[in-house]
Amino acid sequence: MDLVSEERSRLGGTSEAHGLMDSWDDPGHGGGLWAELWAELWAELWVELWAELWAELWAEHEEERSGCGRL
Asked: Helix, strand, coil proportions of the chain in percent (round to 5)?
């Protein structure tokens, strides 16, 4: 069972519930909210991942740089 079907059955399977869920995932009815939420979540995750990667790379760079003068 997919998430939309689960949520519909949780809401009681009423026509109101069907309309609500359809509007969430149907861009033609002013919906597409799921797509917007996923895009926003993905963008935030992407920024976090890049920030972590750069922090690690910078730390390695600084470590190598500080170790160059020592023998």
From this structure: 80, 0, 20
Q: What is the number of alpha carbons within 13 Å of residue 50 lying toward its C-beta?
A: 6
Q: How many CA atoms lie within 13 A of 40 on its CB side?
A: 6
φ, ψ of residue 2 to 5 degrees: the values are -85, 170
**24 in Cβ contact with 33 (< 8 Å):** yes
* Spatial distance between the Cα atoms of 47 and 49, rounded to a whole number of angstroms: 5
Q: Where are the domains of the chain?
A: 1-31, 34-71
- Tell me the per-residue pLDDT of 13-40, one tens digit each, with 9 for 90 and over: 555 544 555 555 555 555 578 888 889 9
d(CA 43, CA 58): 22
